[in-house]
Amino acid sequence: MRLGIIADTHGKLRPEVFDVFAEVDHILHGGDIGPVDLLTELEAIAPVTAVYGNTDGFEVRSRYPQVAECELDGFIVVVTHGDQFGSPTPQVLHEAFPQAEILVYGHTHKAVLELVDKTVTVMNPGSAGIARFGVPATVGIMELEPGIPPRARLVPL
Hints:
The chain is of the alpha/beta class and 157 residues long. It has one domain (2-156): Purple Acid Phosphatase, chain A, domain 2, CATH 3.60.21.10. The chain contains 4 helices and 10 strands, in the order βαβαβαββαβββββ. It has helices at residues 15-20, 37-43, 58-63, 90-96, and strands at residues 2-6, 26-29, 48-50, 67-72, 75-80, 102-104, 112-116, 120-124, 138-145, 148-156. The strands form 2 sheets. Strands 3-2-1-9-10 form a 5-stranded mixed sheet, with helices on one face. The longest helix is centred in the first third of the chain and has 7 residues, at 37-43.
């Protein structure tokens, strides 16, 4: 299974995302979505699991949770924006969600791909929306195969 991982779009869905996500089976959105219509565009590519972020309005918050947990290809996946932890780190998220084998978050706009405890993969795909804080726009791709650790990479847009 191939996952497309995105966060912090803030209402801007770059055309490059459609190329990068062309072969994905599922999309995880780590919050700060912008208008809910943005998720409809992503759903045209693949099913989407999304959470709201601190800048999302009522429409997004009424449809999506702060934390989503799902099982994909046998892996327990937790998606959260992470703002409830201030400036989230992989270790803080791992402590908050010890059941997760894959953790996806956003909020910081800084891309992170890290292994925690040799078994938990944590990814912040960075910001896919408007470039802020001098950080380039990025998304993530993660490959899942039962019985082996996830393989993941960050993709500049």
